[in-house]
Amino acid sequence: MRQRVSFSLTLPLTLLLLLCVYESRGGSVRNTEAIAPDISSTVNPQPFLPLLAPSPLTAFTNYSIPKLSGLCTLNFSAAGNMMSVTATDCWASFAPLLADVVCCPQFDATLATLIGQSSKYSRMLALNVTHAKHCLSDVEKILEGQGANENIQKICSIEPETLTGASCPVTEVDTFESTVDSSKLLGACRKVDLVNECCDQVCENAILDAARTIAAIGMPNSKGVNLLPEHSTRIDDCKNIVLRWLASNLDPSSANKVLRGLSNCKVNKVCPLVFPNMTTVVKECANGGNQTACCKAMDSYVSQLQQQSFITNLQALNCAASLGVKLQKANVSDNVYNLCHINLKDFSLQVGSQEYGCLLPSLPSDATYDITSGISFICDLNDNIAAPWPSSSSEHPSSCKKTTKLPTVPKATSAQSGLINEDLIFLSFFSSLLVLKVLL
């Protein structure tokens, strides 16, 4: 059984030992030529091994029995497996790094399912504020007892009010079902096509229609709700009620799949990175500046992005486009991505000093726990897609464009024996390097 890494080891010595072992097995991992971006969510990717990032840090296994408030009536056993998955997805030190893509979407889905499943007996799709405080505290204690980060509520920006009905006028199951075409809603969302839902929005549109319907209750003009923007507070609050109702009409596993699929569409539409000041890059790269100085500035800038979090393939595409647009607006007209060999993986958290980016799959994925290897998550270290330079200062990519194609998830393959030894040696130290980098 692999032991927990001791942080008391001298850092330089640890890195030196890792480097010696790695170099003795044949040097750096093979570099591949960057290929043009291919951005469709429908194409079958060419077979390659979806690499796991095994952690030598054994997961928290001494589960403690938390002292709960005794004032929360949610049925935690109804979502027992989801709670375990959430604890793993939000495991201790990895939670902030996986927050946007893995941890928080799973935490949100678990909370919605807990309230939805409990509504079968309470007939309520929301909690009052006092009840919500007790329940959120209890959920956090249970997850922490299974190894989750103790600050998960803060990391995911979840407040007790999130579990209430907020501004939505409908919180009772009976009122909801007498107002909404529930059979139509369930038909659209019972099985969500994880690949096509983000573009076709079959379930999402049904949820929006249901949310608008219940949001209209109590408004002086029934047509007024149609004037509300899609993401108004009232509509968003009612969407939460709709999601909880869906979770009550599906088994927890199916509910989790639907909720994660829907949240994944939102996740992949944005770039979660915070762009630091670009003054140096603009100074060196604007108006056809010196290439060496420009690329040095770009490398330094990108290295700051690489210290933030893990992102998906599609998020990396959005980040590349967003940064490109910002640079173009600052009079950087040359394609500095091509000039300086910037790839999509360069926008995600890097591993060690070898500059291996980790892009997560664009479809929902979870971290996993194994008693021998600890916490692992699917990570594409083979991805070497060239970052696309926007053709105009207002262009943003869309994975729904039929003319461009990008694999959504690594394709399973049995070609594991094809990996040469230095690849395997590198992978065995993946999380060691990651944790050491994060600690610096």
From TrEMBL:
A Pfam family per the record: SPARK
Q: Which residues form the At1g61900-like C-terminal domain?
A: 269-341
Transmembrane regions: none
Residues making up the signal peptide according to the UniProt record: 1-26
Residue intervals of the SPARK domain: 69-222
User: Does this UniProt record's set of keywords contain Signal?
Assistant: yes
Q: Which InterPro entries match?
A: At1g61900-like, At1g61900_C, SPARK
- In the UniProt record, which is one GO cellular component term? plasma membrane
**Keyword annotations from UniProtKB, A to Z:** Signal
What is the protein name for this chain? Uncharacterized GPI-anchored protein At1g61900-like isoform X1
**Gene giving rise to this polypeptide:** LOC110764232
